[in-house]
């Protein structure tokens, strides 16, 4: 591959990545590319809904984005570590990481009433069931 081809390839990457923080990190530290990783999660179901725990180590609260559409829950987050430029990294622990998770959920859940908290790299979500799907006792009329 010629130098001109390499330059053209880098320019197309620069154009595609413009205005994104993760790509700026990649450009400034070419030897440490970022990785995309599926976020690890745990689901506990009970009578009233789901408790979802998503592990996002190193991510900041500001980088976490949660969206829902058509019973699909999408979670993204970024880990952008900072370290002195003169450091030589010995492993991948300081790599920029893009976390992604998409879950197809039951239509019995009320995604609009979801509550979420984020602390120490762990996203906790409570997703209640729709009122009409909750168990209830029916009285007999005389």
From TrEMBL:
The keyword Thylakoid does not apply. InterPro entries: A-crystallin/Hsp20_dom, HSP20-like_chaperone, HSP21-like. Keywords: Stress response. It comes from the Bacteria. The keyword Protein transport does not apply. Residues 32-142 form the SHSP domain. SUPFAM superfamilies: HSP20-like chaperones. CDD domains: ACD_sHsps-like. Belongs to the small heat shock protein (HSP20) family. This is SHSP domain-containing protein.
């Amino acid at each position: 591959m010629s130098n001109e081809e390499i330059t053209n390839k880098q320019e197309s990457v620069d154009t595609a990545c413009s205005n994104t923080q993760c790509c700026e990190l990649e450009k400034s530290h070419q030897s440490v590319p970022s990785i995309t990783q599926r976020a690890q999660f745990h689901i506990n179901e009970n009578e009233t809904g789901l408790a979802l725990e998503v592990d996002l180590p190193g991510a900041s609260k500001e980088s976490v984005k949660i969206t829902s559409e058509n019973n699909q829950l999408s979670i993204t987050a970024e880990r952008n570590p900072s370290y002195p430029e003169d450091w030589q990294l010995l492993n991948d622990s300081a790599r920029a990481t893009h976390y992604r998770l998409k879950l197809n959920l039951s239509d019995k859940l009320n995604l609009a009433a979801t509550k979420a908290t984020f602390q120490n790299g762990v996203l906790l979500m409570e997703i209640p069931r729709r009122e009409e799907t909750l168990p209830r006792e029916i009285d007999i009329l005389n």
